[in-house]
Every structure is written in C-alpha cells, then in structure tokens.
Amino acid sequence: MASVHDQPVDLDTFMEGVEKRNPGQTEFIQAVQEVAQDVFDFTQDKQEYHEAQILRRIAEPDRIVSFRVCWEDDDHNIRVERGWRVQNNNAIGPYKGGIRFHSSVNESVLKFLAFEQTFKNSLTGLPMGGGKGGSNFDPKGKSDSEIMRFCQSFMTELQRHIGPDIDVPAGDIGVGAREIGYLFGQYKRITNRWEGVLTGKGTEYGGSKMRPEATGDGAVYFLRSMLQHAGEDIEGKTAVISGAGNVATHAAEKLVDLGGKVLTMSDSDGFIHDPDGIDRDKIDWIKCLKNERRGRIKEYVEEFSGASYHEGKRPWDVECDLAMPCATQNELNEDNARSLVENGCMALAEGANMPTTLEGGKVFHDAQIMYGPGKAANAGGVAVSGLEMSQNAERISWESDRLGDMLTELMEGIHDKCVEYGEKDGAVDYVRGANIAGFKKVADAMLAFGVM
Ligand code: NDP
Ligand code: 2IT
User: Fold this and answer.
1) What is the spatial distance between Cα 450 and Cα 452, in angstroms, rounded to a whole number?
2) pLDDT tens digits along 359-374
3) Ligand 1 binding pocket, CB closer than 6 Å
4) What is the pTM of this model?
5) Residues of the chain with pLDDT under 70
6) Among all residues, which ones are annotated catalytic?
C-alpha cells in the first residue's frame, strides 16, 4: 500500500492543495506561496520536515473563531458585524498578533496576516506564536461612543478565547490607543482580572514606552542595516512612504532624524508629494490630522504650499532612493515595482504586511535591489509588544532609552538572520532569508512535539 510519503510533494502539488482547501482566499494563498517557494528549496535535502508535513501544518490555522458583533449606533439602529480571531500557531509561545478593524477584513485577510505573523514573531527571537483578529467594522466617521460600544461588544466574545499565556492581541489598521483602551477596559470588567492580555496599552495602565514608535522606527533600522551592509547610509537619501497612520508617521520621523528626506505620504484616497521634504513639524501636523481631527491627507496641500495632491494614486512613480510601503496589502504591484526600479530606487523596507504583490516582488528580486519584506522589516512593533508582555509579567516598566536600545538590537539581529539564510554569491535575498530563518525555529519546535 502506498504511504503518504510516496506521494509527490513538490511545490506545485503543495500549492494545488492549498488552493483547493482555501477556495477564493487569494491573500492567504499568496502569503503561503511566497513562503513555500523558499521553504521547499531549503528543505529539499531535509526529509524530516517533509515527513512531518511541517509547512502543511503551519498553513492550517490551529483554530479560527468567528463571531457576531452586535452594537447600537448613535441613532439607535442595531448594527451587526462579524468578528474573528485566527490562532495560527503556538509552537514557540502564546498566539500573538494585532486586531484590524477595516471594511476589507475577511477570513482570507486575517488568515494571511496570522500566517505571516507566525514567521515574523519567530524572527524576533522572542517566545511568541502567531495570531491575528479583527472585524469588517469600518471605524471611519464613527463617533467615540460608537467606537466604544463596538469595542465592548467585540471583547465580550473575544475574552473567552484570549489570555496572557493563551493569546495576546494588539493594534493594527483601525485599532490604535483609543480602541485598545476600550478593549482592555471591557476585558478587565468581564474577567475581573488586570493582566497583560493586550499590548499597545496606554503607559498609564501597563503599556510599554516606545510601543507606538516601534514598528516605524524598527522598519527604518532594518532599512539602515540593509544599506550599511551594502556600504550605504540613509543620510541625504530621498524616500517615498505610503500611508499616514501609526507605522507611516513614525517611519517618516525616524527617516528624517537619520538625515533622509521624505517626499510623500498617502491615505486610501490619494497621496501628497512635497518636494521640499516632509519635516518633523509637518509630520506632527499629519499626526494631529489623522489622530485627533480624523481628517484626510489631501488637506495637507491647503496647509503647506509647494505640495501637490494626487487623487486615487499611489506614490510609486515619484523618483526616490528609498521606498517604504506602510499602508496595506497589495498596494504595490508589478508596474509600480518597475517604476521604482527604473527611477533608481535602491532599497525598499515594508512597514505594512505583504504590501508588494508576488509579481512586484519578482521585479525587485530580478533587479537585485535591497528588498526587506514585512515579516522582517516591520517586526519591531510585535517585538516591543513582546517586551510589553515581559514588563507586565514582572510588574515593572522600562525606560524609553533602554527599550530603544533593545529595539535597535532586535532589528539588527533580524537583519543578520536574513543575511545568514539569504546571502548567495555576494547578494542578499532578504525575502528568502526571512522565510527560512522564521520557518526553522517554528519547525524545530513542532518536530519536538510529535504529531499534533
Ligand atoms: P493605521 O490604521 O494607523 O493606518 C493605516 C494607513 O494605511 C492609513 O493611512 C490608511 O488610510 C491606509 N490604508 C488602510 N487601508 C488602506 C487601503 N485599503 N488602501 C490604501 N490605504 C489604506 O494602521 P497602521 O499604521 O498600524 O498599519 C499600517 C500597516 O502596517 C498595515 O499593513 C499593518 O498590518 C502593518 N503593521 C502595523 C503594525 C503596528 O504596530 N501598528 C506592526 C506591523 C505591521 P485611510 O485613513 O484612508 O484608511
Ligand atoms: O502586524 C503586526 O505585527 C502588528 N500589527 C503588531 C502585532 C503585535 O502584537 O504587536
């Protein structure tokens, strides 16, 4: 009788299976494909990973919880949304990953994010598994009290499935300090427990200093490490950034502090281009616009002369040395990648998760530009979340300087792991390095546990 090991397990057969089991889940299939091509290559001569079906198991979430979230809007209409938590893999630590509130959220998006998170968290070297959650609830235009009621209803169900040693959510698109406050308050109220069940909390109630800055700062440190490895530096370089949220604004600040010139920022309606450079004061203005006034990026051109607004467009045609996509998945396609390469862009670090399509990634690969994938470049956020968990467990809080040093060291460590597994013939394939280094630790833990 043929055993399962006699069946051909090549990449195409593997991906056919993934597609068949996850019909229509394009983002999830894309994320698995991107990892699988490198992992298959790496494990070619490592039969133990194949026999134990490790990648097949990582690409099947441990569980997915899906639930109804019912809330009342300010006009007393009853609204019904869907919530999810995808617990992908907890081989190396409790499930860990953000919560996203955005109208585009569905099961495929959260499965791709939880899958990516598993490798990202492994790369940090900290004991964290991979998870992600969220809702198709659209926070845009909602009042504070509507946001509060939605968060309370969402947590009323989610609290059954999380805990400081089980699953520790945090923020992501549409979930910032305000939402984390409402979510944490409701968890505490229902369980009567104050514990480090969420990260990204306010510093008044157990949040870590440097967590808001960590993803953007970390992505710039990763970019700096790639440039330094090639004998270059950020000083004097121009950069295009997409997004105007948490990751984008902090990446912009750090780039400016290190001597770079930021030319663009964007939101889902369009981008602004400021040839004079978006300096610290202008970034402060954008932060206030987005976080307090809840305005749109196009208002920038009314405030700062010399800048232009490009409705419905993304910033990838603007000439630059460096690029940082910091908004959302698949925001940079093959044509955009070509345009960046043709305009002389030398390095790209992804602040967002999977912002580049598979075809776009291939353009960067073939052009041999430095390409830091999200799971490595944006790991600074979850890394400081891991440090927030440690501080909560010890009931202490560390100072910003210490955390800043730890973040710098963590990002340099991730860079070095990518080089270790991705360097070939003098060039570094950061995508391959991140995939293999992230996979190996999780895979070895899973081998230790046996079949489950
Ligand atoms: P925010 O909600 O703070 O900001 C998101 C930004 O991206 C906004 O400018 C938003 O514009 C824009 N955006 C969102 N959706 C779209 C879309 N469909 N098309 C175009 N623009 C869009 O989120 P974050 O800054 O926290 O997250 C940005 C990215 O970084 C995400 O991919 C997230 O997964 C990733 N990330 C975040 C981490 C964190 O610590 N926060 C950690 C690691 C990765 P608009 O206002 O119009 O919606
Ligand atoms: O994508 C991500 O890494 C995040 N949204 C942060 C996750 C976290 O747990 O801090």
Assistant:
1) 6
2) 999 999 999 999 999 9
3) 102, 104, 171-174, 176, 215, 243-248, 267-268, 326-328, 331, 351-353, 378, 381
4) 0.97
5) 1-8
6) 132
